[in-house]
Every structure is written in C-alpha cells, then in structure tokens.
Write a structure and sequence with these properties.
Helix content: 40-55%
Largest sheet: 8 strands, mixed
Shape: globular
Radius of gyration: 23 Å
CATH class of the largest domain: Alpha Beta
Oligomer: single chain
CATH architecture of the largest domain: 3-Layer(aba) Sandwich
Strand content: 15-25%
Length: 305
Amino acid sequence: MFSLRRLRLLREVAARGSLAAAASALGQDPSSVSHQLKLLESEAGAVLLERVGRGVRLTEEAQILVTRTEAVLRELEAAEAEIAEVRHRVGGTVRIAAFQTALHTIVPGALARLAEDHPDLTVITTHIRTEDAVPALLARDFDLVLQEDYPSRPARRGEGVETEVLGDDELCLITADTSGADAASPGLAACAHHVWAMEPADTRAGHWSRAECRRAGFEPVVHTESSDIVLLVRLVSLGLASALVPRMSLRAAAASTGIDPVAITTSRLPEPASRRVSTAIRRGSARTPRIIALRAALAAEFAAL
C-alpha cells in the first residue's frame, strides 16, 4: 500500500519541476522530501526520479503514480464536499486568487458578504496573473481562481477544471482628452499618433491590445508596459498616454487611487468587444458549501457593477 502523504510529495515535484521547489511550496526541508521519496520508491519497487541538470524528470512509473494520485485527490475532495453538504455547514478555509481589477472591485464586496453571512468561513486572498491562475489551481495552491478571457485569447482551462461565467466586461478606448465623453469611437486609426500604455505583450490583455491597433493599421508606440492596469489608467488621467482597457479597470482605479473616471474620455470601440470574467475550480469541489457560497458572493458583486 502506498503512503498518500508520499504520493502528494511526488505530485508536488511533478507540478513544480524540482525537489527544492516542491519542498518550498510545502514548507518542508528538501532533504526530508528526498528521504520520503526514497521510501516511496521502495514501496513502488521502481526508480521514480531521474536527475536532469538542476532539476528532475519523472520516470514512466512515477507518471503513472502521479496520474492515479490526481484521481484519488479529486475523489477525496468530492467526498469532503458531500460530507460538508450533508452537514449544511459553511466553514473552514477557502483560498482564492484573482487578477488586479477583480481584487479592487468585486472581491472586497464578496468578502464583506461572506463575513456577514458565514462568520465561520476564512477566505485567504492572493493576487495572481491570469496566465498563472489555472496552473496554481491545479497545483492546489488555491481552491478558486478568477479568470479573464480576451477575444481570440481564451484562458487555459486544463483537464480537471470547471468554470462558471460571471459576465462580460466591455473593452474600451481611454484617451487623455478630458472632455469626459462616452461615445462611439472615431476609430483606433485616428489614435495612431498617440503614445500608449499597455500590459506586457505576453499577457492576454497585452496581446489583444496590440492586435487591435494592428488591425486598425498601425503599430502602437508603447512607452509604458505594465501589468498594473490601475497605473495605465492613472497615466491616461495625467495626459501621458492612451490605453485599451476593460471598463472594470476604471472602477478599480477610482477605488484604489481616487481617479475620477468622468475626467477620462471613454470611447466604445467600432467593433464592440468584451473580456469574459469567470470563476474556475477543480472538478469535484463544486458541491462544497464554501465554494458555493464564494461563487454566489462573487456573482452578486459582479452583477452589481
């Protein structure tokens, strides 16, 4: 019989790519992890790890164990959900990770709702890049992550992930013009001479923004590249750049820095576009009362935007 604790260690090594990274994630000493995996090799009667440079590679036997361990953990998570459902108790700890604009807008209100309705529930909240969210969810760093899908750049789902759509967040052009208008855009082409603030090109938002400009016939001159979308809005409010952002970012900027969205000209794009916001959880945890409560609170806050 295999030790489930040791199987979890092997799974962590598979997810993190090295013994040191797995030990760090688990808060354990690398030598202790190495010793436990040696014992697992004895239980399996096979070599499980091979040294490759500074990392390790799983053998075929190890891959089999990791796949089976994932299935066991899903079943245990489902069993926990069913027991909690029978007891009708919303409590314990739930870990959530979200992108920046969600943390500034819908997450605080959701936390307040949960604190009032379910005082026995502890919510641990972390900021994370959307691109890193699902891998962290599957690594069991979090129980729920907020996702954003941009046109033609859907978020990675991954096997064993269930999503639930919260709604769509309109994408728009914001410029340094302080007239405060909110009307149809004359077209991105008219802004070809502008200086731009954008998210990094390797992000979904950054890829979409650059693609929109290219579709309008020009290569954007990007003077500021940052994943801090509130910074991008701030630069526009100071007359230092133009940007393509989701409307939720204007609320986020107002909430965090006091920027008045009315002071920025917000224009709808000629071809309307939106990012889709959703929650993602591991398959098997959907019936867990704390997940149900968290999803309901986030949905209520998004609907109130």
